[in-house]
Design a protein that fits this description.
By secondary structure, the chain is of the alpha+beta class. The chain has a domain of about 60 residues: Double Stranded RNA Binding Domain (2-Layer Sandwich), CATH 3.30.160.250. It has two helices and three strands; from the N terminus they run H-E-E-E-H.
Amino acid sequence: MIIEYIEAALSKAKYEIINDEDPFYGEVPGLQGVWATGKTLEECRENLREVIDGWIIVRLRKNLPIPPIDGHTIEELSRPEAGASV
């Protein structure tokens, strides 16, 4: 579920070359704050993958919505109440 979401997000990524020490820049439109840089396109893509993973974790921890991408969704699983048997 999460891997498929990350791959779908990466398929939407936009890349450009910028004037910087790490000249490759990538972002995922629709995922606020998700961007990365790298010395090569592949490094930028791997960095972007890590940023997306961290972004998902933060969104889940803060109970913030995660927008669907091409039908891929991530929803927090309900946690059992304290003291409840599983």
